[in-house]
Design goal:
alpha+beta, Rieske Iron-sulfur Protein, 2 domains, seven-stranded antiparallel β-sheet, four-stranded antiparallel β-sheet, 3 helices, 13 strands, rod-shaped, binds FE2/S2 (inorganic) cluster
Length: 212
């Protein structure tokens, strides 16, 4: 605590106690009041009403904040949904009925099931068989050229006879055949889940052709 060292002096004919700087004790309280640093508390104006502009700004930021939060939650929910329900590949059924043998011309290739099931149905004078439309080189889809009576792959030029045997281009082996049978209702039943490869001697399997 700060103290003042006083001394006695004669002022206006009276003996008065002064500070070390010569100030009388009567003046000291006034001097102290004028030299005391303000804390600012008393000078602060009373808090004003923020007004409608400030309230509108606060409302805007609140709406923006909640909007961003909602959008972020929706995005996160979408990610979780995709994780919970991944893409499912729906493939056409592996077996299907293809009508009766009488619907197919002898010594001809039918493209009736090519787009939907990836199958050529071939009928010769004795039997029918279901050929895969997948090239055995790199998996392209060959075209049936009726005038040349061959399947021709547009990718690298492989050629296949109507039997499925490869005879030109880079294809290393014949086209594959699918299981074929006659259903109880007289319709041709093709089962793509069972394949037969000529190079493995599987074309002799009675399930690989249908006698007609
Ligand atoms: S994919 Fe058919 S020839 Fe290459």
């Amino acid at each position: 605590m700060r103290t003042f060292k006083g001394r006695w002096e004669m002022i206006d004919g009276k003996r008065k106690k002064t500070t070390s700087s010569g100030m009388t004790h009567e003046k000291l309280p006034r001097w102290a009041a004028s030299n005391t640093p303000s804390t600012g508390a008393a000078e602060k104006p009373a808090a004003k009403n923020p007004g409608p502009a400030v309230e509108r700004r606060a409302f805007f930021w609140m709406v923006l904040g909640w909007g961003s939060f909602t959008a972020a939650m929706a995005w996160a929910g979408g990610l979780v949904g995709r994780f919970m329900f991944p893409n499912v590949l729906f493939e056409p059924p592996q077996s299907f009925k293809a009508g009766t043998p009488e619907e197919y011309t002898v010594n001809d290739v039918s493209e009736r099931w090519k787009d939907r099931f990836g199958v050529w149905l071939v009928r010769d004078t004795e039997k029918m068989y279901a050929l895969s439309t997948v090239c055995t080189h790199l998996g392209c889809t060959p075209n049936w050229l009726p005038n040349e009576r061959k399947f021709k792959c547009p990718c690298h030029g492989s050629g296949f006879f109507t039997t499925g045997i490869n005879f030109e281009g880079p294809a290393p082996r014949p086209l594959e055949r699918f299981k074929i049978a006659l259903a109880d209702d007289g319709q041709i039943l093709i089962d793509k889940s069972k394949k037969f490869q000529q190079e493995k001697g599987e074309w002799n399997d009675p399930d690989s052709f249908l006698v007609v």
